[in-house]
Write a structure and sequence with these properties.
Layout: H1 2-9, H2 19-26, H3 29-35, E1 52-55, H4 58-63, E2 87-90, E3 94-95, E4 139-148, E5 151-153, E6 158-160, E7 163-167, E8 170-177, E9 182-184, E10 187-190, E11 193-197, E12 200-217, E13 220-223, E14 228-230, E15 233-245, E16 248-251, E17 256-258, E18 261-268, E19 270-273, E20 276-281, E21 284-286, E22 289-290, E23 294-296, E24 305-306, E25 309-314, E26 317-319, E27 322-323, E28 327-329, E29 334-335, E30 338-343, E31 346-348, E32 351-352, E33 356-358, E34 362-363, E35 366-369, E36 375-377, E37 379-382, H5 383-386, E38 400-403, H6 405-413
Parallel strand pairs: 1-2, 2-4, 3-4, 4-8, 5-9, 6-10, 7-11, 8-12, 9-12, 10-12, 11-13, 12-14, 12-15, 13-16, 14-17, 15-18, 15-19, 16-20, 17-21, 18-22, 18-23, 19-24, 20-25, 21-26, 22-27, 23-28, 24-29, 25-30, 26-31, 27-32, 28-33, 29-34, 30-35, 31-36, 32-37, 37-38
Amino acid sequence: MSSQLVKEWQGTGKAIAVVLLVSSVLFSPTSLGANGPDNAGRIDYDLDNDGLIEIDDLADLDEIRNNLDGTSLYSANTGCPTDGCNGFELTTDLDFDSNQDGVMDASDTYWNDNGRGVGEGWLPIGYLSEDGDAPFTAIFEGNSNTIRNLYINRENMMYIGLFGTISESQIRQLSLSGSLTSVTGYWHVGGLIGYVSNSELTRVSSHGAIYGRGQTGGLVGAAGDNNKIYGSYSKGTVQGESWLGGLIGYVGNNNEFEKNFSAVGVIGSDGLGGLLGIVNDNNQIKYCFSLGNVHSRNNHSFSGTGGLIGELRSGNQVVASFSSSVVEGRNNDTGGLIGQLGSNNQITSSYSNGLTTGNLQVGGLIGEASGAGNAITNSYWATDRARQLNSNGESEELGYVGLSLANVCLVFLLG
């Protein structure tokens, strides 16, 4: 089952092939003279007339911070449709290792030395602050291209990622990868986005080392309210203290997640999940899974540790999802699928099959249920793999029981 899901969810969609169409314009003598070294002064910013301004290099990408609504670039919109442009599209792969020497240092364009010999790296696009908010509010179409070796080292700064914050936005078909990819921040830290609200992410991914004190995830640090995330994944490592997830560290309310997965090693103290760290209220999680190991490194916590979700609070739905993560909870409330369960949640047709260990309130599927009204049906844990014979609230009548891995597989194969 997992191999079939991985194959489907790793699909990145169809690339929009515009290179042949526009090559005669881009490489004409007139065009080369007009563009200049920073691509300002183009003859046409929307060569394929789709309302998305082309991003051709790192300088263009950096300029987006001055055009957060997607209506212009370098304060120009020549070639946009009559009703204007509303976003950007990436035309090629980009690489922050700008000199291609395999090292991130002062010789790379976006090293950004802080004056003490330390490179702070890329400054995220979009921000929230006490002085005013300026999130990215447009479309960013990746066209199945990859941004390699993103480097950010801003340990005292919040809202960290390629995009710091986005709102009422769409980001599609974009991958972050590269052996030098490293993102460090304080709070709301993710490979792609620090904080997202009222937005859609479709077939996006991040593969790298992510560090943050709290609300930190492999793809997104925190997803506030009313987001839809589809067909996306993360790989690598996430390290920090509290509310960490392989995909997303913190999830607010009324979000929809479908066909997402994480293969991330998560290490922290509190509120740790292989896919999602803390999940608040009224969210839907369907056809998702986690593979990376989850490790809690101290003996005190206020939230759980889970293979898929650290803490699931109230009114959420988890459907046809699973975890194969090894879960080591040195704190309380450790579960193969969910560490701590609140109230009025529905979990159906889901399972876990990873080794699960902890101190108190340890369960093969659920560690601890602190509230009432939860419904767990047709969901299982593999007793021989988890090495746990029990799970909080287990019920043979509801089909919430522990089975051998062979029998768990048989149940799902037979429907």
